[in-house]
Specification:
6-stranded antiparallel beta sheet, 5 domains, SH3 type barrels, Ubiquitin-like (UB roll), about 55% strand, mainly beta, disordered N terminus
């Protein structure tokens, strides 16, 4: 609500003196009544119609006369060039809204090969600027970034794909401990690996590479850094059994109740988490409490995670998405830490590079709140727009699936008694919304 306030000068004293003469002082007073004019709130009966003038719904809304009406009924969106505005108080006004649709966008490289696809939602006729540029690609031109949504249309957006290589990091015993993706304009380009690309806790024999043929794989040998403490734990109220690296109890070896111990590593063994407290001696996580030695919310977590069927975005420690950094589909990665930020869990896969836990599976872990099973097939949305949900059952407010559209599924889960199907990375639709 805009306010305009008059600028007032009160008690302004003007006086003048001439040598040898006395000038009578004159006091000039400004109006001392301050006025503030606020825009009045109006109530309108808003009659919503579609692009063809067909009636949709009535709704009583409040706003400022002349201001834009930004509300739209379920299944509809405000037009890109919104001309719907509030009228006089108690007036009936008509607002045109566009039917919400979901369209598929394919990113196609210079060799006419599909790089990636995504689903974009919005009102029919609205313009949308694409922002999810596939990793390792550039836009052909700025104009290609903007599309106008047309129901039933599939968009092929051209991108220029750089030469891509996968780097696999292995120890001297041929154990894979991480992967990285490198890009360049042409074969033969010199590439220097960054610190963030090398697996946490390891040192690479070399960081200088030459880009090879597109989609080639290169191997680098790494050596584990000297073992260092990554935190401490305190044993709970009773002595804690110690285990070998394979999860077998070590006879006669326990930790005293209430004693504190440094953590050197973390592993998931047969679905249970263990902390390393001595050479080949591990304590089960349920028997101890991790001490809050730091204020960053990060706890040690050494395991392996595997991405799903699509690219997984990487984030920094603040939860900000990293431009041009992602993990390839169906790839495995070594983790070093775990944190919860704004209610979401992340796993550390490199220095200041974190992956959303909902986009990966952890080796040896099984979920207790959901029952996720592979379910590949095609589902069809019923006659209404279908909301999308995260793996935790939280509604996604800016994305939905259009009526009658078909979607490829990857997994199926049961959460709080309802069945969901996965149609994109961390995007699930309820079975009740399907034909």
């Amino acid at each position: 609500m805009k306010k305009s306030t008059s600028l007032l000068f009160s008690g302004l004293l003007v006086s003048g003196m001439v040598l040898g003469a006395v000038t009578t002082p004159t006091t000039v007073h400004a109006d001392n009544t301050a006025t503030t004019q606020a825009a009045a709130t109006v109530t309108n009966n808003v009659r919503f119609v579609d692009q063809d003038g067909n009636f949709i719904a009535n709704k009583s809304l409040q706003g400022v006369k002349g201001a834009a009406i930004t509300f739209a009924p379920d299944g509809y969106a405000t037009p890109t060039n919104n001309t719907n505005i509030f009228g006089d108080d108690n007036a009936t006004v008509t607002a045109t809204v566009n039917k919400m649709v979901s369209v598929k966008v394919n990113y196609v490289d210079q060799n006419s090969k599909l790089v990636n696809s995504e689903v974009v939602n919005g009102g029919v006729g609205n313009t949308v600027k694409l922002t999810d540029l596939p990793a390792g690609c550039n836009w052909v031109n700025d104009a290609e970034q903007t599309i106008t949504l047309v129901e039933g249309k599939e968009y092929n957006v051209p991108v220029t794909k750089k030469v891509f290589n996968t780097v696999i990091f292995k120890t001297s015993d041929n154990t894979e401990v991480g992967r990285a993706e490198i890009f360049g304009d042409k074969v033969g380009d010199a590439i220097n690996l960054t610190t963030s690309q090398i697996p946490a806790g390891y040192k690479a024999d070399t960081t200088s590479l030459t880009l090879q043929t597109d989609n080639n794989t290169q191997f680098i040998t790494v050596t584990k850094n000297a073992e260092a403490s990554t935190g401490t734990v305190t044993v709970n109220d009773k002595a804690a059994q110690l285990y070998s690296i394979y999860g077998n109890a070590i006879t006669g070896r326990t930790l005293d109740a209430k004693s504190s111990w440094k953590i050197f590593d973390t592993k998931v063994i047969k679905g249970k988490t263990y902390y390393k407290v001595a050479t080949n001696e591990w304590v089960e996580a349920s028997d101890v409490t991790v001490n809050n030695d730091t204020t960053d919310g990060v706890t040690p977590f050494t395991s392996n995670v595997t991405t799903g069927g699509v690219v997984s975005t990487l984030y920094d420690k603040t939860g900000k998405a990293l431009s041009g950094r992602a993990l390839g589909p169906n790839t495995a990665w070594k983790t070093a830490g775990k944190m919860v930020l704004n209610g979401k869990t992340y796993y550390q896969v490199a220095t200041n590079e974190w992956v959303d836990a909902s986009t990966v599976t952890v080796a040896g872990e099984t979920t207790t709140d959901t029952n996720v099973t592979p379910s590949k097939g095609v589902v069809t949305i019923n006659s209404n727009v279908a909301n999308l949900y995260t793996k935790g059952g939280v509604a996604i407010t800016d994305r939905a699936l259009g009526p009658g559209t078909k979607w490829q599924t990857a997994n199926k889960m049961t959460l709080n008694g309802e069945t969901y199907y996965q149609v994109a990375t961390n995007e699930w639709v309820k079975a009740s919304n399907l034909k």
